Amino acid sequence: MADLSSPIRVLICDDSAVIRSTVSQLLRKDPELEIVGSAENPYQARDKILELNPEVLLLDLEMPRMDGLSFLGIIMRERPMPVVIFSSLSQQGSRIAWDAMQRGAIEVLGKPRSPRELHDLAPILIYKLKAAALAGRGKSFQSHVDAAVASSKAPSPVAALKGNQVATAFTRTHTPEKEPVDCSHLDPKALVLLGASTGGTEALKNVLVDLPADMPPILIVQHIPAYFSASFANRLDSLCKLRVKEAKHGDVCQPGHVLVAPGNYHMTVHPTTGGYRVKLDEGPRVWHQRPAVDLLMKSGAQAAGMHAVAGVLTGMGRDGAEGLLALRRRGALTFAQDEETSVVYGMPRAAKEIGAAQRVLPLHRMAAFLQEATRTRRRPSPPTEHEVSSV
User: Fold this and answer.
1) What dotted CATH number matches 191-389?
2) Do 363 and 340 touch, CB atoms closer than 8 A?
3) How many whole angstroms from its chain centre is CA 5?
4) CB of 185 within 8 A of CB of 214?
5) What number of CA atoms fall less than 13 Å from residue 365's CA on the CB side?
6) Whole-prediction pTM
7) SS3 (DSSP) at 85
8) Minimal CA–CA distance to 300: which of 198, 194, 183?
9) Which of 60, 144, 223, 237 is flagged as catalytic?
10) Which of these is catalytic: 14, 99, 214, 319?
11) Are the folds of 8-154 and 191-389 the same?
């Protein structure tokens, strides 16, 4: 699955002895993982990091003596390494999970409620640990760490809260109503489709914050746990000129709006009178994922064809490559993120290798590219020397 030349050394930090033992047993079944130790609190984890030199840390957020979020900040400053958050993700806890992603965590996964669910989740947990290891071995990991350290210098709204104080911190802050925007100059059939996995929450944020409010409908599949997608969408909405929300079954795709696929649901797009509508379902996982980028892209090829602009961003594996190729074959304009700016250069590389991506773009060029590509009857100018064509 992963292009890893040596076993991944994993340290587990969780205050539950049952979780530590069960997870260790499950992970040891994969020959590409080596469980070097476990710790019941961040202080033990700190000592074992120095002693055992793990490559990836599996970290709970709610622990005694020091919370996982505070420990994450220390790690990113003192001993940067890929961290996978494995914690209970309720509607409230998802806000802490979002903060953890901002402060350097590579992946976030919700901890199941029962031993049976934990066993069922093992393949996904293994997948995310491998993705984190690839991120740590990738070219852009230091940039990821630098951004996380800069973010950790800002006051955290949740890191120091305990007990009943936590509930009040998760109430969504009021976002001023955004003014209506004239989108009449846009192609009424235009549609933007974006897919990402490991490193995608930050990459998508960087793209969306640079986009104006007068954009065609944008649909996003980010590999994300249930309960986290709503918080992710709300956070984007507070930062962007566009209106961003978690998609609901039957939502109409509107100009100036972004729909984010909810965790644990596939999202597809379908033509309707004068535009498009999304559908959600709980079908089988694709490439270990639900939502899957491929399903959105393939439905977009059928629904929008040449009117679509679609891109595959950072992430491990091949999800999105086949869908992007289907879009290109139907006349859509397609692109993939470049290796230099990808946290994990897996999904974009797969798209490039099969000829699905017409352009390979650095992250900082994507917003301008999307603006130019989606204006009525306009397509971007020929590639510059900084853009690699896979044609």
Assistant:
1) 3.40.50.180
2) no
3) 25
4) yes
5) 19
6) 0.82
7) strand
8) 194
9) 223
10) 319
11) yes
Catalytic site residue 223? yes
> How confident is the prediction along the chain (391 residues), in pLDDT tens digits per residue?
445 668 999 999 999 999 999 999 999 999 999 999 999 999 999 999 999 999 999 999 888 778 888 899 899 888 899 999 998 765 555 677 778 888 888 888 888 878 888 898 899 999 999 999 988 887 666 666 666 556 555 444 334 333 333 333 333 444 567 777 777 778 889 999 999 999 999 999 999 999 999 999 999 999 988 778 888 899 899 999 999 999 999 999 999 999 999 999 999 999 998 899 999 999 999 998 999 999 999 999 999 999 999 999 999 999 999 999 999 999 999 999 999 999 999 999 999 999 999 999 999 999 999 999 997 544 555 554 444 444 3
**Active-site residue, from 156, 197, 299, 342:** 197
Fold for 8-154, please state it.
Answer: Rossmann fold (3.40.50)
The answer to whether 352 and 324 have CB atoms below 8 angstroms apart is: no
Give catalytic status of residue 319 as yes or no. yes
Please, which residues have CB within 8 angstroms of residue 68's CB and are 6 or more apart in sequence?
13, 42, 59, 60, 61, 62, 85, 87, 100
Query: Domains of the chain: which residue ranges?
Result: 8-154, 191-389
Whether the Cβ atoms of residue 357 and residue 318 lie closer than 8 Å to each other: no
Residue 212 in 3-state DSSP? coil
Contact call for residues 178 and 214 (beta carbons, < 8 A): no
Residue 197 annotated in active site? yes
Exposure class string for 150-176: b at 16+ Cβ within 10 A, else e: ebbeeebebbebeeeeeeebbeeeeee
Return the percent helix, strand and coil in the chain, to nearest 5. 35, 20, 40
Q: Where is 117: in which H helix or E strand?
A: helix 115-137
